[in-house]
């Protein structure tokens, strides 16, 4: 089904948000920045913001030295752009001080950076370092996993969902499950108005076959 439907994540996800001519260390940093900006922000908006930052020179040195007000104007209309600029500048300073301008190579260290949570850390490990150490669970993955009942019991947070999925999903599938489900959630299994009638999973999906209450999002 994902082969037939191109989603925003396919062309504007974190793996696509960087300057391909930049050194590896800089590309890793740019991917991390894209993840930091992506929270509660559409891929199209994030991708455009990162592109504008790259045109100015998206490196830890430049971000640390940049005027905060100017950065706010560059990344707007990214959600919570003022807070994200604060996080970007603080993170850039930490990377320059502790990691020689590179990004950390472990989930624990990544999560200590301002504005970086578990989802971003696991995706950064996968996209930037090409290491699969966990599943990056965002709202799409969290929602679909619960709709499909891929967890033993309903989960309330993305972290609970990550742990539940990792209990049974083969590790060689961890790297692709985020990309697949995010795209699926963007195009078919939407949070509001899911296209259950078009979904190839509708006959086996508990959510699609369940009676819908009046006023439900579907």
Automatic annotation (TrEMBL):
Pfam families: HHH (PF00633), HhH-GPD (PF00730). It comes from the Eukaryota. Its cofactor is [4Fe-4S] cluster. It comes from Ornithodoros moubata. InterPro entries: DNA_glycosylase, Endonuclease-III-like_CS2, Endonuclease3_FeS-loop_motif, HhH-GPD_domain, HhH_base_excis_C, HhH_motif, NTH1. GO terms for cellular component: nucleus. Residues 37-187 form the HhH-GPD domain. This is DNA-(apurinic or apyrimidinic site) lyase. It catalyses: 2'-deoxyribonucleotide-(2'-deoxyribose 5'-phosphate)-2'-deoxyribonucleotide-DNA = a 3'-end 2'-deoxyribonucleotide-(2,3-dehydro-2,3-deoxyribose 5'-phosphate)-DNA + a 5'-end 5'-phospho-2'-deoxyribonucleoside-DNA + H(+). GO terms for biological process: base-excision repair, AP site formation; nucleotide-excision repair. HAMAP family: Endonuclease_III_Nth. One of its GO terms (molecular function) is class I DNA-(apurinic or apyrimidinic site) endonuclease activity.
